[in-house]
Amino acid sequence: MSAVLRRFALLAVVAAARAADAPPAIAYLVVAHDAATLDAAAKLVDVLYDPDNLYLVHVDAKHRWPGGDALTTMGAFVRGRSNVRWAQLVDVRWGRWSMNEPTLWGIREALRLSTTWSFFINLSGDTWPVLTPAALRATLGEVGGLNFVTSGPSCPTGLRPTGRGEFGDGWHKKQAYPHPMLSDGGSELEAFYGSQWMILDRSFAAHVDGTIDETGTVANRLRRWFVNGTVVVEGVGRVKPHIADETFFPSVLMNSDLRDTGVPPPVALLNDVTGDASTAVAMRASFYVRMDEHYPWSSAKQRYASTLDRAERPWGPYYLGAYDLGDVRESRALFLRKASRDVDPNLFALLPVDDFRDIPDLRWPPRTVAVSPPPPKARETVTRGSDAGCVRVSESIHCPPVHTLNADVAAAHARAAALPRSGEL
Question: Is 231 strand, coil or helix?
């Protein structure tokens, strides 16, 4: 071998070693449906931008471009960046299977376009990162091959998807699907719940993409059922299966070979890579969201008055603001939603950060505070239930009428309780 060839071989070995040590690259999918969400999505891509990552943007097919010119608007995303692509393909309908189609398109495109990313993350325009791109990649490197498909911290099992049987009898999500969810001649499947907004390891993303068109697979059976099936809901009657976006990916994951290796515990204990790497910290959420979804009759209301909603929301997700940052910091969440400059622009001035310690430990005062007219109602913060493995989210406690959660939830929270809290980071 000539000296030149030996040099090139050595450079290739060095490059490969550096690549192995480099933090994982990310494939992002950002979805938008109108002019306002497109503007928010453009700002989101800008703050997340890293030349090593891949960025895909999907615009709802219902959107009509001003003057019929899509390129002018989408130029804000691309701007000559070869790792940013966009498409307008799917007419997305709330609660229907079409909610999953942009995500599936994004996964397939990401796998086709790049072999270098390790995580796939789908985001809405009202999402905002907690960490800067470099800090986020470093943290995901510590996470390893785990898949976050829950809406924690509101998910009753934390970072792990929640099985239908883990909901108490009074929870409406237990009534949404039959038991078993599928009995179509193949193995019976139980429904697992999570969130539409996810952080997926490449191996699971490839598993979904590689099996969804294969007859008899879990992914294929679930898609056919959501598209063609019906379900009887007590008090409602026979309807098409709904909330496919919250159940498809969690159900496929929990019925795959990755169930034991690719699913996080209810609370993940990680090394603090943004600070002292020798210190263990508790990650309680991947996306911080304030929800009362399991108690639609809850008296807890949105604390930040929003001009974006036609009426006050009876339940979450609620808009977040600066007073939520203490809980965000404590949760070690990587993203938060919902965030809007029309609700509280302070969030965008304070986030993202390089280190969780840089997040101000701001909390809601114990008395009424008017943050915008009309003033929100004062709500008490509830702390009961932690001994049973429940998850406290601001003023809401997500406890079923009868606890049926597995013991791993309480055990995970007990382990996390022994670690430093946000004030001690």
Answer: strand
Helices (H) and strands (E) in the chain, counts: 12, 16
Residue found under tokens 């001003």: 66
pTM of the shown model: 0.85
Q: Which residues contact 200 (CB under 8 A, 6 or more apart)?
A: 107, 119, 120, 121, 147, 148, 149, 249
How far apart are alpha carbons 48 and 110 in whole angstroms?
A: 17
Q: Is 216 left (phi over 0), alpha (psi -120 to 50) or beta?
A: left
Q: How far apart are CA 317 and CA 290, in angstroms?
A: 6
Band the pLDDT of 301: cuts 50, 70, 90: low
Residue 374: is the preceding peptide bond cis (ω within 30°)?
Answer: yes
pLDDT winner (highest mean) among 60-69, 126-135, 290-299: 126-135
How is residue 48 written in tokens? Answer: 């997340």
Q: Which long-range contacts (CB under 8 A, 24 or more apart) does 173-178 make?
A: 173/294, 175/233, 175/234, 176/231, 176/233, 176/242, 176/243, 177/231, 177/241, 177/247, 178/231, 178/232
Q: What share of the chain is helix, strand, coil (3-state, %, to 5)?
A: 35, 15, 50
The amino acid that residue 348 corresponds to is: F
Do β-strands 84-87 and 54-59 pair in parallel, antiparallel, or remain unpaired?
parallel
> What would the pLDDT profile of 381-399 be if each residue is shown by its tens digit?
333 344 444 444 444 444 5
Dist. CA 177–CA 293, nearest whole Å? 16
- The phi, psi pair for 324, rounded to 5°, reads -90, -5
Distance between first and last Cα of the chain? 54
Beta-ladder partners of 398: 391
